[in-house]
Amino acid sequence: MSEKLAYRKIENAGITLVQGIQAAAVHCGLKKRKLDLALVYSSRDCAAAGVFTRNRVQAAPVRLCRKAIAGPIRALVVNSGNANACTGEAGMQNARRMAALAAASLGLSPAQVLVCSTGVIGQQLPMELVERGIARAAEALSGERKAGRAAARAILTTDTVAKEVAYRGTYGGATFHLAGMAKGSGMICPDMATMLAFLFTDLAIPRPLLQRLFREAVDRSFNLITVDGDTSTNDTALILANGAAGAPEITPGSEACRAFAELLEEACRDLAYQIVADGEGVTKVITLTLQGAPDPLSARILARAVLNSPLVKTAFYGEDANWGRILAALGYAGVDFDPSRVDIYLGPVQVAAGGEAVPFSESEARAVLQQKEVPVLVRLNAGSCSLTAWGSDLSHNYVTINSSYRS
Fold it and tell me: Which domains are seen in the chain, by residue range?
């Protein structure tokens, strides 16, 4: 029997690919027409791990989830259209009520149900609508592909497409799966860290190990993206592992553990990229690679400064090879480096060397900037650390979307 863990990506698949996972989605009335409530159920107890927003203003479901993931989990209920944030004690009671309603519908304890919300901040949930929605979702639970696809749509807000990823693999003679869904389009600058991401696997992984692996994967994926520099009150990333595949338990330090860590990071990076690509008003994804940073933290600070700069973002929207804005953003990030050693490339086109302009073809640079994904390379020559992060341009449409979000 082979103990090697191997996997491949499965196209057009979602969370219900995972053994023991069922899902459902309904329109309960929080949105005008679209699906707005999703329910996910596991036939077996799950080890749960989570990473949450570091915003000091945290929604009631976030505070509830932080405590609940310590125990065995069987279900997840998510509503969109209302964030249940800045809603006081009534909001916390409503979050607990959602868990209790789902538990009653599924024959579980409320402690076995995780709750997440996303949408408008500062409004109380209309619980009569939510109550009916949870009951209907519980009756509609299914392991079919269409059920997982519907759940992925039900968690969206200003997103234009659902975001899903799925993998199938083998380990210890058994077939296993890892799949996930996410939402996020605006208010994206996770610092964990209006982003939601939910992953499920039928492997058996002890909770402390799952938490460590998930935190590391999130740090190298969702924490390296930005659309607009805003960290949400509701950002939540969760993973549930139910062991339904029947494979040997993943143990710390094993070859299988290292392989699963790579798989988990790949899945998270895939979902993170989908979030940036579907950012509000986005016309371009900026893939920024920093080389030669002094240390890992400095690399993150520098990347975030560049990708969150309105001047950098608008230059990319206008397809203007204004590399000086990149260097200026690096300079105000608060990291010590020598500007006279910085080289900058747009795709294969070098636009700056030693912190100064070099002759380059404007037409070749514009051809790079006209791509949907624009690769940018910055060589700081100040150390040995490298990092790749993802951001977006800033368009007129972003302002239009966010100037009328509630209406």
Answer: 6-277 (3.60.70.12), 285-402 (3.10.20.340)
